[in-house]
Amino acid sequence: MKSNSKVKFETKCVHSGISEYEYGPVVPPIYQTSTFKFESAEHGASLFAGEKKGYIYTRMLNPTIQAMEDAIAELEGGYKALGCGSGMAAVHTVFASLTQSGDHVVCSTAVYGPTTTLLNTIMKKYGVETTFVDTSNLSEVKRAIKPNTKVIYVETPGNPTLSISNLEEISKLAKQQNAKLVVDNTFMSPALQNPMAFGADIVLHSLTKFLNGHADVVGGIVVVKDEETYQHFRKTLNQLGGVIDPFNSFLVHRGIKTLSLRMQRHCENAQIIAEWLEKHPLVKSISFPGLKSHPQYELGLKQHKGAGGMITVELAGGLEAGRIMMNSVKLFQLAVSLGGVESLVQHPASMTHFSMGKEARLAGGITDGLVRISVGIENVNDLISDLESTLREVEKAKLR
Ligand code: LCS
Fold first, then answer.
1. Which of 10, 124, 223, 306 has a CA that sits 20 to 30 A from residue 262's CA?
2. Dihedral angle over CA of 93, 153, 65, 247, nearest 10
3. What pLDDT digit, counting tens, does each position of 329-342 carry?
4. Nearest C-alpha to atom 17 of ligand 1 is from which residue?
5. What pLDDT, on a 0 to 100 scale, did the predictor assign at position 350?
6. Which atom of ligand 1 is nearest the CA belonging to 220?
7. What is the value of pTM for the model shown?
8. At what angle do helices 246-256 and 63-76 cross, to 10 degrees?
9. Which of 184, 209, 245, 361 to mutate to test the pocket of ligand 1 (most atoms within 8 A of CB)?
10. Superfamily for 259-396?
């Protein structure tokens, strides 16, 4: 389907990225090949020289991968996209493309743990310095910008605190500084938030989460706005080598067809569960963008089309209470990752955000008692029954 088509998002989910293929299949074939034959020596040379268009080698480009990339570029309102082997490969491709030694990055404190670790280790080793700030607080972002700031990197809602950053205002700050605003849109998916509509330059996702939606693929994607950036990023990705493969691209493209439906159910279920949890006497604090108690609730209404499927809670009784909760769930599964059709719980301090270290965690509001819930698309009453019996186990321990 052609880009910039006027059809609605739900229709784009079904049709984006699909073009004409030999024999007329309605879904893109899986081109499970590492390399492509040239018609002649001259043809091969002209492909490498960029004089002719065509496929050369799957690390460089492959039709199944490209179909999935085109679909996501369209859903995000971008120009083109680059499929990566994981969300972290996407994060690395972005920093390797946009920075060099001596540059500075401003990054949200509430980001996926390994993103913080990548900036604090590998990027630091190559001479890129990062200042971590609460990007939901604009004056902190302003204060952190230095003459050599090249990237402002925002995750909104942030993992795992779900704090929301004002993309429109941060994009103005980035423009003034001639820096790029990069947004990790994993928690919302393009169904609920399009950061480029608020001025973001680059959008990335872990495809492992809502976009694929079925917990059976690890992948990432970077969406860009123009040909020059696309070519630059493509060269970097080709050199780093962290590309996605054709079969995983096929699965992601298949998952996208139900993205709109799935996100609707994730949002409905999470809203009901968050409201239920907020009233529960054992819940000390809760963060969910769809609750009026969320500090950036109003901003969320402007920036999102829905509050998403992620909830973070702190139980009265702290870490021990959270441990009992995680060990007694039956329908919810105790596993990291998120955004799949099945509901999951996990403990950020000892799991997803462990690598950051306690000091960085506390600076980002990630206390030891936080439990993160990824709400799936099951029947919401079944999910609540599971949480009810789980919290009865916590109550029995008399930790309050
Ligand atoms: N960005 C966000 C917001 C993420 O949540 C993750 C993974 C990544 C990037 C990296 O993606 P990956 O390389 O895993 O595809 N988040 C995970 C989480 O919260 N639990 O397990 C993985």
1. 223
2. 90
3. 999 999 999 999 99
4. 337
5. 87
6. 15
7. 0.97
8. 30
9. 209
10. Aspartate Aminotransferase, domain 1 (3.90.1150.10)
